[in-house]
From TrEMBL:
Domain spans labelled ABC transmembrane type-1: 202-408
Ribonucleoprotein in keyword set: no
Protein name: Spermidine Putrescine ABC transporter permease component PotB
Gene source species: Caballeronia sordidicola (Burkholderia sordidicola)
Membrane topology of the entry: Multi-pass membrane protein
Length: 419
């Protein structure tokens, strides 16, 4: 009897071991299948986003180019006289850099806060060294020689700008992206009126995105409803027309809208022929052209979620409401529309988030007052070469998008719980 029990225990352990091996092989197979996708997402999405978040608070140019100066200014209260060691530090740092590009990078960073640093660094670099034993000169003598080279070295505001960048990390870019700054004491204050307008820029971006989303919903909902009630063959054929813009370059579509909306384009010529207007309407290089083109480009992103939800709504519900005495419109509004709200929410979220990052359409069809955040991100990246500011604007836009998505998830979750 004991031998039989031992044999059964051994068989049970072997069976469990075999099941574990099978599960491990299945898990390894699943990891092998999703591994390339996970690596791809990590390389092309997560790492760039993490790099953008880090670059929005990094400030290495001044610290790397002027280590002795920033070290001497870290204990300065920005109210008393500039320490003599700071003058020694700036002399040694500029001498050490020589023709290196690091001084130019630091001057460019500081010039964004206090105009004149580029010429000041260049003039000082041309006058150095003072002698073979510069490091042995008294600090007071170095102060005198530097102020003789350029009187701006006696201006505390230049030293305050250097002291404000004495840390490798700074909130300056993120604060500037929402029209705030740190004053000489380190307190967060609003920028002077007329200095920047990033709050107005974000407001404009959200307004344009909201208008495009509303227009896409107004045009997309009837179209998706019509496609959902058509026979499958005709619906599939028309769906190809909805998807056709995806197979056409966005530049081609924008060029087509330029031809259509220009003063002698199809729209104005048609309206003039019909006598609706007496002179061509200004439809290009303004907000109107931007909204028309963006709505056309993003309309499929609204139609597809709506169509997928509407196809799953049984038509018998609406018929039952009508048979019980409801008006057809009342049955549609109170029975059918609530069941399509998940599609409405998904479509609006998809269109709105996509519209937030639009760059080409406003740049080609809009005027100066119609550019969105992405335009200035491209400007700081390609023209001004201010990567910190570009990443800060992108970070604020990313945070706004995540908050919007979180609000949507909360609303959808609340509706599901109520249901």
């Amino acid at each position: 009897m004991d031998a039989i029990m031992s044999s059964q225990d051994w068989q049970s352990r072997e069976l469990k071991r075999s099941l574990r091996h099978v599960n491990v092989r299945k898990q390894l197979g699943a990891l092998a299948l999703i591994g390339p996708l996970a690596v791809f997402i990590l390389l092309v999405f997560l790492l760039p986003v993490a790099s953008m978040l880090m670059r929005s608070v990094e400030n290495p140019e001044v610290v790397d180019a002027l280590p002795a100066t920033t070290q001497a200014l870290r204990q300065w209260d920005r109210k008393s006289l500039v320490p003599d060691e700071a003058f020694r530090g700036i002399m040694l740092d500029i001498e050490r850099n020589g023709g290196d590009n690091s001084s130019g990078s630091a001057a460019g960073r500081l010039n964004a806060e206090k105009e004149g640093f580029r010429s000041l660094f260049y003039k000082t670099s041309s006058a150095l060294p003072f002698g073979k034993t510069d490091a042995e000169l008294p600090a007071a003598e170095i102060r005198r020689k530097l102020t003789e080279i350029d009187s701006r070295w006696s201006d505390p505001s230049f030293w305050t700008a250097i002291a404000g960048n004495a840390s490798r990390y700074t909130p300056a870019y993120l604060l500037a992206s929402v029209d705030y700054m740190q004053d000489a004491n380190g307190a967060i204050v609003h920028v002077p009126p007329g200095t920047t307008a990033y709050q107005a820029l974000f407001k404009r971006t959200f307004v344009i995105s909201a208008l495009v989303t509303a227009a896409a919903l107004i045009f997309g909902y009837p179209l998706a409803y019509w496609l959902s009630i058509l026979p499958a063959r005709r619906s599939n054929l028309l769906m190809i027309l909805v998807l056709l813009p995806f197979w056409t370059s966005i530049l081609v579509r924008i060029s087509a809208w330029i031809v259509i909306l220009q003063g002698s384009g199809l729209v104005n010529r048609l309206l003039l022929t019909l006598g609706v207007i007496s002179s061509p309407l200004p439809l290009l290089f303004n907000r109107t052209g931007v909204l028309i083109a963006m709505t056309h480009i993003l309309l499929p992103f609204m139609v597809l979620p709506l169509y997928s939800v509407m196809k799953s709504v049984p038509p018998s519900y609406q018929k039952a409401a009508i048979s019980l005495g409801s008006h057809p419109f009342g049955a549609f509004w109170k029975v059918y529309v609530p069941q399509t709200l998940p599609g409405v929410g998904a479509g609006c979220l998809l269109v709105f988030i996509t519209a937030l990052g639009y760059y080409i359409t406003p740049a080609l069809l809009g005027g100066a007052s119609d550019q969105m955040v992405s335009y200035y991100i491209a400007y700081f990246t390609n023209v001004a070469l201010n990567w910190g500011m570009a990443c800060a604007l992108g970070t604020v836009l990313l945070i706004a998008t995540l908050l919007l998505f979180a609000c949507y998830k909360k609303i959808v979750g609340t509706e599901l719980n109520l249901g």
